[in-house]
């Protein structure tokens, strides 16, 4: 049986398990080797390094596997989707593989966005995020706001609609373990904001943002602070949510919110790309 084929099947299963559990991983493939490389090194060999630190597969030797596993965190933190790296760039002591090239690829589930509140802004945000490629969950305690008839286009069919009997439990279930999840709280009042923010902080998603004026959002944050919510978690809450683009309409506000969510996920600064030209 072909060793690479067996290795690939094991890695495919490991990828499936990682994605189903909400984990991310980096897949490293040996794509180029020098003619003088030992026979144990073959193009197409793969190593999967999961965010837990566990690894599946092999690139041909334990020494190379360990060197690659140590380089993976640097690649993962760069937010690049893929990058080709020469072995001598990170493991110059492996002389027999000088000139060999490895393809590092990010493996992660499609990003998820949980929206609390299906009013004009929430509905607009759900549609826009689905268009961009997010897996969207839209929650509201008003059943008439999350009827499928309101989201009937082909694209909108991908939006999960939840009529919440109770905000806290519905939000916690939707966020699950929080990995790869952004939460936008765009409800209609203080009480709903408090319930949703309390649930979101406990679930620890990658991003939490809450709509409202500075005064309104500060009232909610102070209430949770008095309840004993960790200050480090409260400081991570983006409130008021979104980037300042002068938004007025619900669709523009949704765009401002999604822009901040994407910037947070991709490591963007949110400043104008042309700012370098300004004195």
Shape: elongated
Helix content: 25-40%
CATH superfamily of the largest domain: NAD(P)-binding Rossmann-like Domain
Briefly note the structural class of the backbone. alpha/beta
Q: At CATH's second level, what is the architecture of the largest domain?
A: 3-Layer(aba) Sandwich
Kindly report the CATH topology of the largest domain.
Rossmann fold
Global Rg: 23 Å
Distance between the termini: 64 Å
Number of domains: 2
Task: Write the element-wise H/E pattern from the N-terminal end onward.
Answer: HEEEHEHEEHEEHEHEHHH
- Per DSSP, what share of the residues sits in E-state strands of 2 or more residues? 15-25%
| Order of neighbouring strands in the sheet with most strands | 3-2-1-5-4
Low-pLDDT stretches are: none
So how many helices? Answer: 9
Largest sheet: 5 strands, antiparallel
Mean pLDDT: 90
